[in-house]
Structure formats: structure tokens, C-alpha cells
Amino acid sequence: MGEMKLCFGCMKRTNASGGVCPECGYSDQTTCDPSFITPGTQLNNRRYIVGVALSANGEGITYLAYDASNSCRVLIREYMPQNLCTRVKGSPIISVIPSRLAQYKALMAEFTELHKSLAHLRGQTNISTVVDMFAENNTTYVVNQYIESIRFIDYLKNNAGELTWGKLSGMLPPLTTALSLLHNSSVIHRAISPYTIYVTKKGDLVLTDICISAVRTANTELVCEIYNGYAAPEQYAANMRQGTWTDVYAVCAVIYRVLTGTMPPSAVSRIEREDLVAPSALNPNIPRYVSNAIMRGMCLDSASRTSSITDLVTQLFDENAAYPSDELYYGEPEMPYDENMDYGGYDDQNYDDFDDSYDDDYAYDDYDEKDYDDSQKIGAIDRLKVPIIVGIILLLIFLIVLFIFAGDGFGGNESPSPANTTEVVSTITTEVTETAEETTEAATGDSIMPDLLGKNIENQRNLYASWITFEAEEVFSDEYTTPGQICWQEFEAGETFDSTRPVKVKVSKGPATVKFPSYKGSGYYSFGQKLDELGIPYTMIAEENEGYSTGSIIRITATKNGKDIELEEGDKMDMNDNYHITIYYADNPEPTTTPEPATEPPVETEPPAPTEPEQVPTEGESAD
Fold this sequence. Notes:
By secondary structure, the protein is α+β, with helices and mostly antiparallel strands. The strands form eight sheets. Strands 3-4-5-6-10-9 form a six-stranded antiparallel beta sheet, with helices on one face. It has helices at residues 101-119, 152-157, 165-184, 244-260, 267-272, 279-282, 288-297, 309-317, 380-405, 407-411, 418-442, 457-463, 524-534, and strands spanning 4-6, 13-15, 42-43, 48-56, 60-67, 72-79, 85-87, 94-96, 130-136, 139-145, 149-151, 197-200, 205-207, 447-448, 470-475, 486-489, 496-497, 503-508, 513-515, 538-543, 553-560, 563-565, 572-574, 579-586. The protein is elongated, with a radius of gyration of 43 Å. α7 packs antiparallel against α8 and α9 runs antiparallel to α11 (418-442). It has 13 helices and 24 strands. Helices cover 26% and strands 18% of the residues. The chain has five domains: 31-145, Phosphorylase Kinase, domain 1; 149-330, Transferase(Phosphotransferase) domain 1 (Transferase(Phosphotransferase), domain 1); 381-442; 449-508, Trypsin Inhibitor V, Chain A, CATH 3.30.10.20; 513-586, Trypsin Inhibitor V, Chain A (2-Layer Sandwich), CATH 3.30.10.20. Mean pLDDT is 81; it is low at 330-357, 365-386 and 407-443.
């Protein structure tokens, strides 16, 4: 039996026997598009494991991923505007095109604020739920909850291609309520379609794919993604105003498709030749008031269109509501084609490799609309910015010079001398030059600094080894007390920097403020350990002192920034002030005792030989 491992195709743990997942058919040999993050890459301190890319457009890429902290699947959206940046080869890091850095940062800020607004709507189950956001790899990531669901267009395929009004009317209210709350948060979807609405197992409709406005509008900085048949006419021209009425058009177009089984003609084709047929004419079972509400919501003229979701809901569900102009929706188009209007050059354009086509294969009537693509790499504002700035500067200089020389005519003042006039013009020129230099300086660099504060320096060195070189200085910090934590970075998070130069950081050695410990009752060795734990440098000096036992501390002296000071137990020390402690301890010689002089043992002599006892004569014997 094969090893159980995480499949990057479905992000489930499966039997890896043969290298092909039995759940989804994903193979370990599958090649990855170099513009996508390689499956298996870990993000946000290894919390998220990236799987396959599910979709991509001019704003970024959506991946299936695995949340290791919560043991569940998630969706990760990576901000990566394809014509403003590139992927570093073999790395998840994004490198920004230097000339496009200002746009990259501005749109990333919009991307971040958009998803912050969506995060506030976390309790709304009918809107894709944002559960996390973080910055890494020179970009921003948004984590969305993963819900088992299918696209609305596929749901329709499973239901004969269309639904009745009775069925749809039961599904719509939660979705329109969620959309109304979205609008109250100043968020416009701009891409509501059967491809961005999903249906859960419970039959609930969920709005997904909410992007920044530039990717949903023609002729902007980004390659646009527009859903033909569902996009409002104002989305095809960057100079037309968009608002809640833009989403009203899309919702009505979706309802049109669901009830009739027919994909609506694109707004562009309708501008040239109005050919939108009333829904009730295609399907007599659709109530007339519902058909009228749909047609009213799909007016080409935004001023005549239903302006809010609340008004649309009233028209859809209040059959007694009277609208005298209902006949208008069966007559001539309200906004005739204007040959002088720039509608974005929609002819002969196709999506590039990042964009999918959105032909409705399940509609009864395919209008064979060409997919729209914004091949323009420079936004309309960029094209006009330089000549406008130059013109304003020249006009300003001209007006100032004119005012100075015409002083007599306006206020009777003396005209300034030519020298003064030259000085004024020179000052203006200098200011303009300085401003230009500041602008150029602000745009230098190829990267955007990630947030490093509080993170371990070694981990960051390993993470950004192919991108950032760190020049670290060790300091003490009360805010970041764990040794190794980055407590200061040369460039703030989100600021531009040049990745070819080292980036300076300060790394914590521990807390900056400590209390001087007590040494009473401590030996010199144990007290030295206390100082080691606090990071206080010290020197040990041994002295002979009969008043202290060997190893006892005799006295302690301290210096602060090279000057002698007195320190007592509990005194606060700022470790950045270069303290140094000197510990004097007793090191007495071993005590010695004088030995008693040795005495020689007595000399042993042989005992005298025994003598025989003298014989005493008895009576009768002579003394001979």
C-alpha cells in the first residue's frame, strides 16, 4: 500500500501509489506554469501549502491551498498584475517592473482595502468569506473560505438549462441582500455572472471573484476581464461612470439568462444594434412585471436604469407596482450608438493566455460574441500624464512672469528688475526640478519591502535568500524581547527598495530594560550566570581577602558608557547604555599547619646475658 500524502490537485491526503491521485487524477509529474507558484510552496510561516492554480486574470491568481493550522482546504488569491510584474524564476517572489512600480503599489493598496472591506462582511454566507490576509514575496495574499459548490452555469446545465421564476425567486433574496450590504460597504462587484455565482449543496447562491475596478474596465492599467452579455456598457469605456447600477445590469442579465435559457447579447452589440428581446417574449411563463423589471434593469442608459438593488428587488417581487414607462422596454433603445464615444476598441480583440473565454455553452442561443481583451499596456491616465504636467508647469511659469511684468496695470507697483524676474523663474524651475527628482527617487527600486518586524532573522534570511541580503545589527529592545527577533527595518513594510543592495535591520538581543539582580548570598559563579541570562557583560577578578571565604563576592563595581556608577539591587538598567560589571571575589590560599618535630625512637640494645646464681655454701660445707 502506498504512502498517504497531500495531493496538490485536490489538497486531500490520498494514497500516492503510482504518483496519480485517485481522487482527482492529479499527477506528481504535472508541469507547473512558471508564472504560477509551484505546488507545495509554503506561505505565511508554513501555515498555508499552495496547490494548483484554479484561475487567473489581470489582477492576480487564485490557488487551491491547505491550511495546516485548521486542517482544511482554502482558496488563496495572490495579487499579481501580469503586465506590471514578473515571477522570479524558481521562486514565489514577485519582481516589479521598475517603470510600473507606482502603479503596482497603488493597485495593491486598492486590492488590500477591497478585501479588508470584504473581511468586515465575514458573517454573510452569500459572499465569499475572507478569513486571512498577509504580505509576503513582494505582494499581498488573501485567504478565502473553501466551500463545496459548483458554478451557477453548471447548475443550470443540470437543470435543463433554465429555471422557473418560482424556483429562482426562492434563491434570489439572500443573494440580493448580500449584494445590497456589499454596496453599503462601497464595494461594486462589476463581474456578476453565472460564472462568478456558485451554488452550494444547500442550494444557496454565493458571490465570488470580487476584483479591483481596473480589471473590470476596458483601457485601464490592467488586462481587463469582462463577462460579455453580463457587463454593463459603462465597463467598456474608462471614462464612463460606474456604480450600483452597474451591478443591477449584471443581476438582471443573469436573471434573463436563467429564466429564458438564452445568453443576453453584449452591451457593445446592443449599442450598435438593439436586439435585446423581452424575457416574456421568449418565455411566456415569465410574469410580465418580472420581464419589465429585467428590461428596466438592463437599460443601456445608466440614468434611465434601475439604480439600486433595493429598487430592483421591489420591482421583481411587487407585481402591483405600477411603472407607466413599461412600454418603453419593448420599443426603441434608450441610448443610440454614438460614433464619437470610445467604447474601448472591442473589435478584433481576444483575451490573452491568462483569461478564460466565457461562451455560454448551455444557452439555447449563442450570440458568438468575441471575448474582450484589453491589450493596452499603458492606462489612459498614463498616456496623458506627462503632457498635462508639462503644460501645467509652463502655464504656471507664464502666468507668474505675466503677473510680474504687468504689475503696474494691476496694482501700480513697480515692475521688478530683470534680475528679480530671473530669480523668480529660477526658483520655480528649481522647485519643479526638485519635485521631479523626488518623484524619480520615489520610483526607484524594484521591490516592495515585506513586514519583517517580530520575525526571526535567520528564518527571514532563509525565506528571502534569493531576493534580499540583510545587514543585521544586534540591539536590545523592550518591544521585541526574544533574541533573534527583527525589531527595526530600514524600509517600512510597503515601501520601495532596491533589492540589489543590502537591507539594514536591527535584531533583538533581549529586553532593553532589566533590573540589576541581587548578589547577596551568591557565589561569584552563580551570580555570573544571572548576568549571563540578562545579557549583562562582566569581568571576574580574584582577590586574596581573609575576611571572605573563597568564592564569595567581595564587591561589585559598574560602568555606564565608560563612566563609574553605583548599582544596587533592583536598579533599572537600559542595556543600550553599554553597562559593564566587574565582580571581585575571594580567592584565598589554602590554610597551612606547622607539623610537630619528629622524635627519634629509642635505640634498642640486646639484653645482658643471664648469669648463673652464686652458690651459697651450706652447713658442713666449706667455702672452697
